[in-house]
Amino acid sequence: MSAQPCTPLALSVFASEVQAGLATEGQKTLPCRYFYDDVGTALFQTISLLPEYGLTRADDRVIRANAGELAACLPSPVAVLELGSGTGRKTRWILEALSARARVAYYPIDVSLTALQCCRRELSDVAGVVPVEASYLEGVTRAVSLRKPRERILTLFLGSTIGNFERSEMAQFLQEVRARLRPGDALLLGTDLDKSESRMTLAYDDPLGVTAAFNLNLLARINRELGGDFVIQGFAHQALYNRSERRIEMHLRSRCDQEVFIRDAGIAVRFRAGETIWTESSHKFELSEVRRLAAHSGFNCVRQWVDQEWPFAESLLIAGATRV
Ligand code: AVJ
Q: Considering only CA atoms, which of 135, 266, 282, 136 is closest in space to residue 215?
């Protein structure tokens, strides 16, 4: 999770992605990656405390309950990599279980320096923390280059972040991770499972409006960092469950006909009343689907642990002998 403001180079990437997503015919979009500036990160942390949003607590519970069994599945020594480490809270259970056998190296990978500093502060007592400030794949490349002889790698991809990818892009991304690993290395993948529609829509449209603020912050961030003039009250948060795609879609719906200028993206954008910006997809999974996804990405799924209170799965994938 991040804590920008963007550096000048990253800012021009942000500007061009905003331009590409909004200055277009048809459905307007914005990448969900940009939710996580300091304000968005704090709002997401609040979401994870809401009774309606059980995902983060379920992730934490399954890991905590099964960390010992997970460690028993892996030979020693192990180096742990984490994609999008955030504050590293759930990671403590895994590092503790592994470090009962041997000292563990932990490479949190995040684009946010604030998140990495937090990880180092929180986890230095249980592991040798080596922060890697990079995108996911670049970070994996860098971390594996520091591998010690005989060391196995366990990569963590938790919190159902994989659910934010398009389904067609999930296997492709995991293949890229697999290509950087060796046979026998492991990937622990957290996925939110399908549940009743009412539970899911409430989780993404909570009565306090925290998720609405999280979604709308994307427009406020464009105003702050790219010189936009969005009137925030002119848009409404919307969370829809798409049953055939098995995903929650978050949108920002224009309440009226309006035009918005975004100085640093060099665009003027017209909205019709009711028109939306699609900001996030949060895919939900079946257990068998995760096993299939693993197989298509060059991994074998050897264990799956599920939280009963809030259906959520942790799947342990082992890199196979051949890449795909
Ligand atoms: C960060 C992937 C866990 O998709 O559920 C929370 C982000 N979006 N509420 C998710 C989010 C709306 C979230 N993850």
A: 282
pLDDT tens digit sequence for 140-179 = 999 999 999 999 999 999 999 999 999 999 999 999 999 9
Question: Per the confidence metrics, is the pTM higher than 0.85?
Answer: yes
Ligand 1 pocket member 3 (CB < 6 A): no
Atom of ligand 1 nearest to the CA of 161: 2
Distance CA 162, CA 136 (A): 12
**pLDDT tens-place string over residues 182-227:** 999 999 999 999 999 999 999 999 999 999 999 999 999 999 999 9
- Report the mean per-residue pLDDT for the chain: 94
Q: Which atom of ligand 1 is nearest to the CA of 159?
A: 3
Q: Which atom of ligand 1 is nearest to the CA of 203?
A: 9
- The finding on whether 59 has its CB within 6 A of some atom of ligand 1 is no
Are residues 34 and 3 in contact, defined by beta-carbon separation less than 8 angstroms? no
Q: Which two tokens stand for residue 295?
A: 């197989």
Between the CA of 32 and the centroid of ligand 1 the distance, in Å, is: 9
Residue nearest to atom 1 of ligand 1 (CA): 161
Nearest residue by C-alpha to atom 14 in ligand 1: 161
Is 137 in contact with 180 (CB distance < 8 Å)? yes
Rounded to the nearest whole angstrom, what is the distance from the C-alpha of residue 279 to the centroid of ligand 1? 11
**Closest-CA residue to 61 (of 247, 286, 316, 311):** 311
DSSP codes of every residue in 175-224 = HHHHHTS-TT-EEEEEEEBP--HHHHHHHTS-TT-HHHHHHHHHHHHHHH
| Contact present, 162 and 191 (Cβ < 8 Å) | yes
Distance between CA atoms of 278 and 318, rounded to whole angstroms?
A: 35
Contact 200, 284 (CB under 8 A): yes
